[in-house]
Fold this sequence. Notes:
The chain is an alpha/beta fold. It has one domain: Ribonuclease Z/Hydroxyacylglutathione hydrolase-like (Metallo-beta-lactamase, Chain A), CATH 3.60.15. The chain is built from 7 helices and 14 strands. The strands form 2 sheets. It has a 7-stranded mixed beta sheet with strand order 6-5-4-3-2-1-14. A 7-stranded mixed beta sheet has the order 7-8-9-10-11-12-13, with helices on one face. α6 (202-209) packs parallel to α7. The longest helix is centred in the last third of the chain and has 12 residues, at 228-239. The protein is globular, with a radius of gyration of 18 Å. The termini are close together. The mean pLDDT is 97.
Amino acid sequence: MKVRILGCSGGIGGRHLRTTSFLVDNDILIDAGTGVGDLAIAELAQIDHVFVTHSHLDHLACLPFMIDTVGDMRNRPLILHATEATLEIIRSHIFNWAIWPDFSEIPSPEKPFLRFSPIRVGETVDLDGRKVIPLPANHTVPSVGYQLDSGQASLVFTGDTGPCPELWEQVNRIRNLRYLIIECAFSDREKRLAVASLHLCPSMLLEELTNLQRDAEIFVTHLKPGQIELTMQEIEDCIGELRPGMLQNNQLFEI
């Protein structure tokens, strides 16, 4: 499995800041933030599955546009995987005809451009031997992370989360863990905001990583624009011995 980072910022502003989306091989998206907008139309048309961590706009802003752009170029519906709670939010507040057309009904209910597929934490979705497994997360809306497992190695993406003991219980069971991508949205000077919004800041990230019992390369995502340098310096000061890297657009992982 090849995982290409399309976007990993906590906001926008300039050509290098795109919100969360990862392209797995050529046909799977993990989240659909603004990074998806950099894909060519032909690349968009190849995507068959989108796994959404949660319903916040920075993680699904491009989903409505993508379906609208390439729906009629495809011979099967795009499958949207998310928890039932997240799918209900998306149905009610996006694909509701008031904000955007309901592409699960058009061009016809029998042959729609979009199909919803509920998932549950811990239940594996197997796509031709590529396993996508929802993991627990702790956020202000129903949310999950994901384990991507090729059989040879695994990558874990926490999604947006505050402190979550249940996540580490699952992660520590992954024998072939190679990469951990974990959020750190705020600097320590905004710790109160991190706590209130169920995100992490460097001191909280340190506390979370003390629960990690597996060897893995660690990458930090979801940094807020304007605080990137400060937050990464605080991370270096807190947990430099773990050598966490800053996730970058167009970074490629192979598992």
